[in-house]
Fold this protein.
Amino acid sequence: MSTRPSSVPLLALLAAVGMLPFLADPDRSTAARTYAYDTPVLKTSPWPAMRRDRRNTGSSPIRARLDRTAEPWRFRTGKGVFSTPVIDGHDTAYFGSADRYFYAVGRDGELRWKLKTGEIIDSAGTLGARDPQAGGPTLTFGSADEHIYRLRDPERRDLSRSRRIVWRFRTEKPPQGGQIVNWWEGNVVTGPGGTLYAGNTGGGMYAISPRGEELWNHPTGNSVWSAAAIDDAGRIFFGSVDAFLYGIDSAGGSLWSRLTVGFNASSAAIGSDGTVYIGSFDHSLYALDPATGNVRWRFETGDHIYPSAALEENGAGETVAVYTASADGSIYKLDTDGNLIWRYDTGDPIRSSPALGRAPKGESGRILYVGSSDGSLYAIDTADGTRRWSYDTTPRGPVLHDRNDLNSSPALGKRGIWIGGESGYLYHVPYDYCLGPGRRDDRCDVDPGEQFGDDLTRTMPVTAGGTTEPGGYSRRLPTATTITGRLVVRRAGETRDVHMLPAPDARSLVADVHPDFPFDAQLSADGRDLHVVPRGFLRADTRYRVDLAGDYAGDGSGSFSDRIEFRTRRRRAARLPLEVARDRVGAFNLRRLSLPLPSLLPSVNQIGFDSYDWIAGTLDRTREGDGGRGRLLLWVIGSRERNGERVADPKSEFAFPLTGRYAGDSVILDQRSFSLLFTFGRVPLDRLGFRGSFDPTLTMRPGAAVYGEVDCPSVPNLGALLLVAGLCNDQEKLIASGTYLTSGYRGPANRRPDGVALADITLTRPTATTDGSVAADLRLSKGADFGAGEHTAGILLLDAATGRPLPLDYDGLTKLRKSGGRITGADLRLPAGTALPDRITAYAIADVFPLGSRSLR
């Protein structure tokens, strides 16, 4: 580690001359207003960084002022928005999206400019004061393309890309802790002297000069997603996925590290007395001594803590309250000794970091703003913990209706609250809109109470997108579906942290289903969600009931008995538009996976799932009997955009089969024993299934469901930690469920490439000690354009007796042969000891088009 020191001003001196933040007159909301920040951020910005100030208090001096002419609006990006917007003095918001763009959107919702990067963006930028090198104000942010970008004059619309970018920074440090990328997912902050601090997914907290040069990096054992908090002495505090909390000095030297029993993703907040407040995936909010890291107190919630804390100060600048939120769905107010003052339950997980603003003129106190996975932005009166109002951002259209998580954190502008959503929208909600012109808006709720009743024991249905539905499923389900029930126990207005008891197993908790259907059942690791997975298609236009009953324990014990009812969709006289023709096969885009259950998954890979872009092509389709039923074999690869269309991505790490059944336009597609790529490596899945109903354009109708099972002990690098952290159920499985989007494919990847044919496929069987292989040789005509930079090729092996794919890592084990830049063949390595059936069917595939198959022995 480099120990080159950075320049740290005397923060105490700045405080003495009155340059620390203050509670200014909120009525002076003009572009000329400054906020007396003590680091060189944009002085006119009401929210220049992820948690606003150097200490990460998440607190704003701006009063909520009702504008009776203002209406909420939204701006749509191409994919989910999980980053926190930063706001300049003109109320322009700057933020990134999973669609790889960084955006500038004006106060009226108009796009001012956007900048494309090479990968997803899910962390906040920082707005800087005038920089000599840039010749004006700056905006600095990180991208998963492994670069930090510094931009000049963010308010200007007319800059070219080359003119806008001042510099890009990239580290050459190899990733740590099993990570395989150096994505910048830690929020960038501006520290004393203009030094930039950012955490890296490859591990480590970095200090970067205003000129884009590395000053030092402090190594960690895994990713750093925290925004650095900096105290008056220049000390820096943050957490890491390696399960440690860190305190370091201004030169990057270690002061202390504190082990927790969980990942640490939230950002530290520093109280007026120096206490460091930070949440952990071990369900706890810690109050730490800044000099030693010793625990002053610890407050435990019902699930992991992803959000960062917000701090309330009195008129004398003393911290008087700490606010945190948890994936248990609740917001907590604590005093500075760690005692609970109140708890407000939204009913669905919270990953959004709360932001504090001042009440309108004529009112005292503070208002806490936070987003929830139920799609609502909440405004909570902090005096008593009641709802002031909430605004439901859930999209009304069928495609995005169930993708409504507000996992971004709010930023407080001059006129309202900005927050990003899983839907891909950035929302702006005017202050107290729901108390003024929005009183008749059905998206507004001004009931001061919570989501659920004061006393109840219920198992409520949960949508594929993860939303709890207390009134029952609000829409019909596809005939190819899964059912999830969530246990909610409330006593005297408080939600109890309880779990179902699988005695003897999860299936025993399903007392009855009617009409009867065969099913599998698995309990989530926390025991709150019971997943019921039908083994086949349900009847169309039929009312079903699923009776759940059993015992629970935890914060109280007892028994539950409840019924989930739903109706399936009407039968459609539809034909599945997935055919196999001589020169073209049916294909669809499979994209934007969302896996909200368990609540841990969005907290560690929410934007990663949302960023997936795949093409699924039909290798084979067989009809079985009457009724439009049969079997499907699909090949899935990664895709990229080229000139407005999706094409094969040769750099993608995805290539795997899906096989299953169809009935009319409904499908049940499963794959057993394969792996998906995360930033820390491949995760072996026991099972991954996609269910739903296509419309004629190959767009999945609402209710599309994903279901997966992971064997925890087999997960590389993290398996033991998953078990210790309680993220695996009684069967040592991590159960995941969610939803996804599709659309008909309109590119070249599903067509027979001109001048390319299969010459032969040969098999060399592995032995106990030596590898085997399958070699596919291609025959290319002289003018064939099958370049390795534009296309890919694959090999798939089936058990000829069953038609099931062999459980192999097809992407990781396949190597392409090339000549003159063209693909001439592919080799699939069969590791020593791989058991093969006597007869194998082997497919050779160009992108997702089947060039041919051979029977091998």
